Amino acid sequence: MRITVLAGGVGAARFLRGLKAAAPDAEITVIGNTGDDITLFGLRVCPDLDTVMYTLGGGINEDQGWGRAGETFAIRDELAGYGAGPDWFTLGDRDFATHIARSQLLAGGHPLSAVTEILCRRWQPGIRLLPMSDDQIETHVLIDDGDGRRYVHFQEWWVRMHAQVPAAAIVPAGAADARPAPGVLDAITGADVVLFPPSNPVVSIGTILAVPGIREAVAARTVVGVSPIIGGAPVRGMADACLTAIGVPTSAAAVGAHYGAGLIDGWLMDNEDKAAAADTALTGIEVRIMPLYMHDLAATADIARAALDLAAGLT
Ligand code: FO1
Description:
The chain is an alpha/beta fold. It has a single domain (2-134, 176-314), classed as CofD-like domains (Rossmann fold). It is 37% helix and 20% strand. The strands form four sheets. A seven-stranded parallel β-sheet has the order 5-2-1-9-10-13-14, sandwiched between helices. It has a three-stranded antiparallel β-sheet with strand order 7-6-8. The chain has a two-stranded antiparallel sheet with strand order 3-4. Strand 11 and strand 12 form a beta hairpin. The site of ligand FO1 has 17 residues, from helix 2 and helix 6.
């Protein structure tokens, strides 16, 4: 069985662990969001690709959900000694090595897809990890604070401002002229099922779908999504601030309806959202209700299994 997953960071990485347990023989391709990528200290940092790679490769900081386990911060402290910023985005020494290796390969002319493959040779994540595009796409957020109306990088809004400043717009800068990375469209058209894990619908899944050609290819497949919203709140992160920016209410039904029957065929919502299963906004989408908290591997595998079962019934 061939499964293709559009992935953001922490939620997707944890879901993928469950998917691997639920479908150990499946060929899984993960199309990772690169809209969160940022250049810091001259190095290219790809948080969502790294979160998937480290989580499935056994190197993740489990408490945090991102970054490396067993980190030290000598480089950060040395940089601070020079007043070299920014100081609001923390990179550990082990993580720095990944960004140095990546940046060196990129400078040598390798596209991000080839670089990601090389980095994954070390981590052996057990899935094929593809960036959504080899072209540079960065999510920018339009804000209006004391310093005026301007665009900031997504990470500045998310990490430095904790998404507390309202976003007037969220744009995937560069997406319109980008092309899917090699293998991305084939992985979608050749998939038995495409899954949307409980990732941010705006800045993770939404950004991947903004790469020309990806949305159309996905819409032609059987697609099942897992709601990242439970009981009117994001399970993790600040997806509510992103949804507000695009005028979508923070509810499982509203996110399902935002994807729409033209894109997804099945939608998993949590028991807490049972009453919304019959919402007319979800007409044309097969809804299943089940516990969606990814407490442990067994619970996560149950969610992945339910997504695959739902897809099998729809094909
Ligand atoms: N998130 C934070 O809240 N603060 C950080 O300092 C931070 C550093 C960081 C470094 C590497 C990395 O791969 C991820 C990092 N994240 C950090 C997480 C990241 O900013 C976001 O949560 C994702 O981009 C959203 O998916």
